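Q: What would this chain look like folded?
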Amino acid sequence: MKQVDTILPKNKTKTFLKRGYDKYCDTALSIVEDVFECQAVSSSRAKFEKAWIDAVLVREGEVKACVDVKSRNMDFERLKGLGSLLVSFDKINKGTMIASKGFEAPFFIFAVLIPDQRIFFWKVSDEKGNFLMPMRVESRKTPFNCAGGEKIDNVIHLPIDKMREVYFNKEDYFLSL
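A: My prediction, written as structure tokens:
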């Protein structure tokens, strides 16, 4: 589906807001590195331009996974109430393709729930690009970006019964944010 009916935000707060969300992405990747004993490698350009993955996870010189990190300004109770996390269908397809075709690695989505300072993840696809859960796709209005605006987008619902939590000591990572 083409992204039509796009309404851009009228203010210029995106850069300021994106930097805040980027801090949560960076923090999540640091936590993933520590918990999963790997190195998160990403392009410096990924922070300033649209990227289909945020990082590759490397251990002992081998790519183990490709990941995308979502920062959401919602708590766990809200996520539970929704029953799923919405992610762009395009993001899932391209992330899966990059992971499987480029690295023969699985693709993961990590979500930082900002108010709770909790991180959850979904293993979306395996190293061959096979989806590991049913994918319910729908077309809906979504925010254009973190500063607002609207667009019509195809989204996938990542069910909460397929997510897992990353356990870590919050005080080690979130005090400085």
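DSSP finds three helices and nine strands in the chain.
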